[in-house]
Design goal:
By secondary structure, the protein is an alpha/beta fold. 44% of the residues lie in helices and 13% in strands. It folds into 2 domains: 243 residues, no CATH class; 156 residues, Glycogen Phosphorylase B (Rossmann fold, 3-Layer(aba) Sandwich), CATH 3.40.50.2000. Helix 8 links the parallel strand 4 and strand 5. The chain is globular, with a radius of gyration of 23 Å.
């Protein structure tokens, strides 16, 4: 990788990082890219061992500690047959099981080189402006490129959950094999999805394809659904009907305002209230969770399929599609975005307390069959998932066959 290519790629990776993680507001470790150095160290620790004797691995890039993203990657890996021999490239922690191997000595040498270069760069660059200090990121990017070149000799491609993260962008640009990014959330923000940087974007349905301008790299492959969601309707609650509020917003003030509205509404309509927190929200909303009245059930780690409830109050979130798979009635109570605007004619939506009250009161008698069928068709590919077939076909194309023969 030449100096100019390295600089251009570094600019791209840093731009993604600044938006995705808002790095300029975080601490020294993230501002100076040292967290990326720790991730690369995890990769080297996980990859110690004799390289696989046979080629044909499909790499699975596991970069984040977010539980819902890791669950999505695990679901996808279960769809891949043994012929693709999926191997993890794990940067989220130490977990060597099923990991791609890079050798016995090489990972240790790269780790020592990484930290020697970073320490030297940090010691010689004080004082500095935080936005201009990218020395650590430059070292990590160059060494990660070396690791990808080594992995590329035995792999057939790489599947990742995002190509708009530091390592995801680098993988999409540097790996000389087919790369795939799997949709793992609603396509709400172009700056996190569009245009795809990987060779193939595996979309859940035709709705996502349309929001991504029918880009030729986008393939409708469906969404792996938890079988427990599709086994049949979740049982209704005993006694008073239960209204489940699925929190998606990460702003405590917004959630507090909505909780006040829902508590008043449930008292008026004789409903019980339960709250399902977003996996990434409870860390900054612990006070809200603790302040809930005793009569309100609070859930975080439980799967939706484990909860007993009657109706849902949702926001612009992927959980809408889980409710569709479960065929559970719901109301969208969100002022933040127009993601489901095309479905306004079949979806109950509210932006005010009065509108929410009317929509919830009408749920027991509202016919949802047309809503379920349309969303299932447009957003979930009619419940069909062909991720494994799409990947297998792409990595078995003419160019991949020629590489294997060579």
């Amino acid at each position: 990788m030449g100096v100019g290519q390295l600089a251009a790629l570094l600019d791209e990776c840093v731009a993604d990082r600044d938006y995705s993680y808002r790095a300029t507001r975080l601490g020294f470790v993230k501002r100076h890219g040292l967290d990326l150095a720790f991730k690369f160290t995890f990769l080297m620790a996980n990859s110690v061992g004799r390289p696989e004797a046979a080629s044909g691995q499909l790499l699975l890039l596991d970069e984040t500690k977010a539980s819902h993203v890791q669950r999505s990657l695990a679901q996808l890996s279960a769809l891949l047959d043994a012929g693709l021999r999926p191997r993890f490239v794990r940067l989220s922690g130490i977990g060597r099981k099923g990991h791609a191997r890079l050798g016995l000595v090489w990972p240790l040498a790269m780790t020592i080189k990484l930290w020697a270069c970073i320490v030297a760069a940090q010691l010689t660059r004080f004082p500095r402006h935080e936005r201009s200090d990218r020395a650590s990121m430059r070292v990590v990017l160059r060494l990660y490129g070396d690791a990808l070149a080594r992995l590329g000799r035995t792999c057939r491609g790489c599947l990742m959950m995002s190509d708009y993260t530091f390592f995801g962008t680098a993988t999409a640009r540097l790996l000389d094999r087919p790369t795939f990014v799997a949709q793992h959330g609603l396509v709400l923000d172009d700056r996190l999805y569009y245009p795809p940087k990987a060779d193939h974007f595996l979309a859940w349905g035709r709705g996502s394809l349309a929001r991504m301008r029918h880009d030729p790299r986008v393939v409708v492959a469906g969404k792996p659904l938890d079988e427990r969601l599709t086994d049949g309707p979740v049982a209704a609650a005993l006694g008073r009907p239960t209204l489940l509020y699925c929190v998606s917003s990460l702003e405590p003030t917004v959630v507090k305002r909505k909780l006040d509205v829902l508590l008043s509404l449930c008292d008026e309509l004789n409903l019980s209230l339960a709250v399902k927190w977003h996996p990434g929200s409870l860390s900054n909303m612990a006070d809200l969770a603790e302040a809930l009245p005793d009569r309100v059930q609070s859930y975080k780690d439980e799967n939706l399929s484990e909860l007993v409830f009657d109706y849902g109050v949702l926001e612009n979130s992927t959980v809408v599609l889980d409710f569709v798979a479960m065929r559970k009635k719901f109301v969208i109570f969100d002022e933040s975005g127009p993601c489901f605007e095309p479905y306004r004619d079949v979806l109950p939506m509210a932006a005010t307390a009065a509108g929410l009250r009317d929509a919830v009161a009408a749920l027991p008698t509202r016919d949802f069959e047309a809503t379920f069928d349309r969303l299932l068709h447009d957003e979930l590919n009619d419940g069909q998932c062909s991720v494994g077939e799409v990947i297998r076909q792409a990595v078995s194309g003419p160019s991949s066959a020629a590489d294997a023969a060579a």
